[in-house]
Fold this sequence. Notes:
The protein is of the alpha+beta class. Helices cover 20% and strands 23% of the residues. Helix 2 runs antiparallel to helix 3. The protein starts with 10 loop residues before the first strand and ends in an 18-residue tail after the last helix. Mean pLDDT is 92; it is low at 101-113.
Amino acid sequence: xPAQRGESKIYLYELESKEATPVTDGWYGVGNPTFSTGxxxxxxxxxxxxxxxxxxxxxxxxxxxxSKIYFVTLAKxxxxxxxxxxxxxxxxxxxxxxxxxxxxxxxxxxxAEEEKAMKVDLDGIISRIVxxxxxxxxxRGVTVIDNQVYYVKSKQGSxxxxxLYDLKKExxxxxxxxxxxxxxxxxxxxxxxxxxxxxxxxxxxxKITVKDYVDLSNMKIMVDLKAEWEQIFNESWRQMKYxxxxxxxxxxxxxxxxxxxxxxxxxxxNRNDLNYIIGEMIGELNVGHSYVSGGDKPKPxxxxxxxxxxRISRDGSGYYQIDEILKGENWTKKTRSPLSELGxxxxxxxxxxxxxxKSTSEMDDIYEAMVNKxxxxxxxxxxxxxxxxxxxxxxxxxxxxxxxxxxxxxxxNNIKKVNEATNGEVGYIHIPDMGRGGLNEFVKxxxxxxxKRALIIDDRxxxxxxxxxxxxxxxxxxxxxxxxxxxxxxxxxxxxxxLGPKICLIDQYSASDGDLFPYQFKQLxxxxxxxxxxxxGVIGIRGSLPFIDGGSLHKPEFANxxxxxxxxxxxxxxxxPDVWIDNDPAKEYAGEDQQLNKAIELILIELENLPKGLPxxxxxxxxxx
Length: 625
């Protein structure tokens, strides 16, 4: 059961008394509860291993691989499988042979015991928790069959695999590199999945070797699309009814909405029609993060076209001129700029005369020669003039995506612009989203610019995510301790911080967690917001329950409101800037960024009366007196 605050707890619920008793105490995260087949144990996973790792970017920590598998004995009289054994040998005067009658009595007792109802002693149950003696990691899919514990384990630095722990042998065995499995109801078979392949095997006791996978090539089903779409429509309505964050459905009569839109479903002729109808229905709630997408519909094959990572234009001669080579980081595939790689003899202003020997002047479009050439070596004939005379040849490997190169070039140009306009005193960071990518961009540019006197944080176009608290925490740090050593100047203590003024750029595309970031920035008085009002969508989503055909519905399940004023904030409104300025589209197309220019202007004003540098090292103490 999720807690209001703190960690979750596992409860046992008694049907007769209707009472719930906690099995765990709430100090540690828990999950994956499952009973053993004999009903003696309740197994679960819990994060109780504390082994911090330290960051390379600053003196900070994180905790990974905290989980193990634990179990609790439900009855006080049930011994632990790992109970200590007496190592003393008892000497008997005589041994009594077990008669057939005794054996039958024992068997009868065992059968009777198995038929008994599960016994649970609630008193002191929390103190009867035992850990499996396995490494800490991340565990899921725990199933216990007799003395065999099956589970999927993953750890930092190692691949995910299916494991078996034998309680009698006290031994862990890796069964194979499988991410998911399911055991049949009679406990005799296991189905494994690897990629899109399925295998059914006998319940394993050791290393798995799959010889044959289930042949799905001839599996065909007849689908009544009209009936399926009706079910999907009803499921959309139902999911929104029970998962929407506001029980009052924003004042909308949700039953009436079903009646209003349901008749349209019979007129749908394809999956896109159905998505449109569902979209109109959920749109009645007037809320962000409410989407319907996907489904069983044709998906045309995409043909990859090789791209140069450059701006090119056609010359009057018919050849193509390289106007600009996009900046890149050629040590990483994501931002590899093909024409700037080592060994490629091409410069801005050169002309592409031919591709693989075919003249570009004879092509209707240069990209007709680049179909299926992404990631493949091609030969460019290049000249410094729009003529084949004096041309040379060079080998290039085109990319299939220039988006990252355009983004990287834009960021680098902004950094250069801010540096030049402020004499190197102001830093610049753009955060494209609040996910892993945006966090990486922040870390990549924040720490190298801590020597700057001020900082411009660009939140424009931020697509959202969930890492804004991590970024805000670093921007909001205050200086308390300075540090020095012999022959060094003063430096911040163990934490990294930016002391100088800060400005945050925002626009109408600062969305979701990209809304929450400037809101926190403003409330914490970290600096001015410059630009236009943000998107205004902060009622969040957790994922989706898939539809029968693979489509999905995103349901706004949790909302954000202001802590101090106890009011709903941002949704449908956004965050207002302190200094309102919009970019003129024509000027922006020509390369002028009016919003960034205003941020530079304002931050230079703030720097005018700000002392330069960090506090000086105080006079050293004289302890001889």
